[in-house]
Write a structure and sequence with these properties.
Shape: elongated
Structural class: alpha+beta
Helix content: 10-25%
Radius of gyration: 23 Å
Distance between the termini: 34 Å
Largest sheet: 6 strands, antiparallel
Number of helices: 3
Number of strands: 12
C-alpha cells in the first residue's frame, strides 16, 4: 500500500491540457463586422481561460497523498534516450524531478527526513537474444552535478531488472532519493552495470547516460 501511495508521485504520463481555437474564414462583411464587435468580449473570455489553464497547470505540478506533498519542478515525458549492453537494450522515455515534503508519520521511511528530492526515470529494458541475460536497471546508480551519488530505491521502484529469459522486456519507473534541493540540480548521470549471462560472465559493457534538466 505504501509503495502505491509513493508511486502516485512518480506517474510519468499526465494528461496535458491543450487549448485550441477553430473557425472558418469568410469573405462576408457582415460576419467580419460581427467578429469585430465581439472582439472585446472574446479577449475577456481568452484571459479567463488562460487563468484557468495556469491554475490547472499548477495543480498538475503539485500532488498530495498520505505520505506528503510532492512539488514537481521538472518533467520531460518525451525523452527517447537509448543504450545497449550486449544483447540488452535500455530506453529511458521520461524523467521527473520534484521535492517531497514528508508527513511526520512517514518520515521513518525516509531516514527521518522531512524533505527529500525524488528523481524518477521511466525505463524499458529488452533482451534481444534467446539466452537468459541478467541486467539490472532498477539497481542503477545516479550522480548529479550537485555531488549526489545514490542507488535506486528498490522499495519504491518498479521491477525493471533481473533475469530476462529470452526475448522479453520489462518496463516501469525507477526512483532515486537525493538530498540536494531540486532547484540546484542541472544534470543527472545514470550508470547501469553491464549485462551478464547465466554463468555471471560479462556479455555487455556498463551503460552510462546523461540527462540535462533544461
Amino acid at each position: 500500500m505504501l509503495k502505491k501511495l509513493v508511486f502516485l508521485f512518480a506517474v510519468m504520463v499526465i494528461s496535458g491540457l491543450v487549448l485550441s481555437a477553430c473557425g472558418e474564414a469568410t469573405s462576408d462583411n457582415s460576419e467580419e463586422n460581427a467578429k469585430a464587435e465581439s472582439n472585446q468580449s472574446t479577449a475577456s473570455d481568452d484571459s479567463a481561460e488562460n487563468e484557468k489553464t495556469a491554475e490547472a497547470k499548477d495543480d498538475e505540478m503539485v500532488k498530495e497523498s498520505e505520505i506528503g506533498t510532492m512539488r514537481i519542478a521538472y518533467k520531460n515525458k518525451e525523452l527517447d534516450e537509448n543504450a545497449e549492453s550486449g544483447p540488452m537494450k535500455l530506453n529511458v522515455s521520461g524523467i521527473q524531478v520534484g521535492d517531497l515534503e514528508v508527513n511526520e508519520d512517514y518520515r521513518d521511511m525516509f531516514d527521518g527526513k522531512d524533505k527529500v528530492t525524488v528523481i524518477t526515470l521511466k525505463m524499458k529494458a529488452e533482451n534481444t537474444s534467446d539466452d537468459t541475460i541478467g541486467f539490472y536497471p532498477d539497481q542503477a546508480t545516479i550522480t548529479t552535478d550537485t555531488g549526489d551519488q545514490v542507488d535506486a530505491d528498490m522499495f519504491f521502484s518498479d521491477s525493471v531488472g533481473g533475469d530476462f529469459i529470452g526475448k522479453v522486456h520489462k518496463e516501469g519507473d525507477v526512483m532515486f532519493l537525493v538530498d540536494s534541493p531540486v532547484k540546484d540540480i542541472g544534470k543527472v548521470n545514470l550508470i547501469v552495470d553491464g549485462a551478464h549471462d547465466e554463468n555471471f560472465e560479462s556479455v555487455g559493457e556498463k551503460v552510462e547516460m546523461e540527462f540535462v534538466l533544461e
